[in-house]
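Example record

One chain of 54 residues, shown exactly as stored in the release files.
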Amino acid sequence: MKRHIPVQIEWHPDPAQPVPVYRQILEWMYGKMESGEWPAGTRLPSQRAMARHF
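Predicted structure tokens for this chain:
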């Protein structure tokens, strides 16, 4: 059985940007997936953990 290691989030949105924070988060996450850094099956943090972080 393959074990998935949860990702570590070392990024924060910039509220000073004209782009809404939720959109910055989406674009950052899409970038991680498109670059292959988060391949299919990568375990993301829970919504609660992400809300606390962001």
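Notes: Residues 21-35 form the longest helix (15 residues).
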